[in-house]
Amino acid sequence: VMKEDGTHHKGMRPGAVCTHLALDPESPVNSRTLYVADYGYGVWKSTDGGRNWELKKRGIDPGNLYCWRITRLPSGRLILLVARGGIEGVEVVPGNVYSSDDQGENWSPLPIPREITAPNDLVYDPSDPNRLYLSCWPLFKDGKEVGGGVYRSTDGGQSWKQVFREDVHVYAAAIDPHDPETVYINTFHNAAFRSEDRGETWKRLEGYNFKWGHRPVPDPHNQGRIFLTTFG
């Protein structure tokens, strides 16, 4: 995170690999509380709109600090995704999911299924913020891909149900702002999908076959319109 003159804000380490920024919408407009995931280092927090930063990583396993994405729930709870590290097929450092109920001062791991090693994205249902959708990348293990796809929680992350194929690299999901029962996902498998029953069943979106899918982005102003971003 840089100032307009190209210098770093106070406290932020030079060379920080910032992969995501979350803003607390309840903080004062002229002094926002911000959280930044610094890949390989931890989470930075600012309570003055980004002028000063403090590192907040208490409770995060120091063996994997590949902090990737931060989601703030309406309750104020923060959920941090830590990416998978290491080299697949040689030595893998599993990713993890953490939560904080004290504005990032302390982090605690959520009980995700053991087969999940690469949590990639998390969204919540605005009509019920305890309903979470975790998009994951699989790991090739014992001759098959495991731990990928989409997992859904209805209790704020205390338990999870797999609702999309674990052999698929799902980059991200999105909730339809006009209908919370409708969920979209984009994948690295030449396909995007839609569910109209909160992930119980899925249909492929016709006319889209780009291999490296990124995010599904529903248009908040035009019901039925969705944008699919891609890599490459």
Blueprint (SSEs and pairs):
Layout: E1 18-23, E2 34-38, E3 42-46, E4 54-55, E5 67-72, E6 78-82, E7 85-87, E8 91-93, E9 96-100, E10 108-109, E11 119-125, E12 128-136, E13 139-141, E14 144-146, E15 149-153, E16 161-164, E17 170-176, E18 179-187, E19 192-195, E20 203-204, E21 213-218, E22 226-230
Antiparallel strand pairs: 1-2, 2-3, 3-4, 5-6, 6-9, 7-8, 9-10, 11-12, 12-15, 13-14, 15-16, 17-18, 18-19, 19-20, 21-22
Structure description:
- By secondary structure, the chain is mainly β.
- The protein is built from no helices and 22 strands.
- It has strands at 18-23, 34-38, 42-46, 54-55, 67-72, 78-82, 85-87, 91-93, 96-100, 108-109, 119-125, 128-136, 139-141, 144-146, 149-153, 161-164, 170-176, 179-187, 192-195, 203-204, 213-218, 226-230.
- Strands 1-2-3-4 form a 4-stranded antiparallel sheet, with no helix packed on it.
- A hairpin with a 7-residue loop joins strand 9 (96-100) and strand 10 (108-109).
- The protein is globular, with a radius of gyration of 18 Å.
- The model is unreliable at 4-8 (pLDDT under 50).
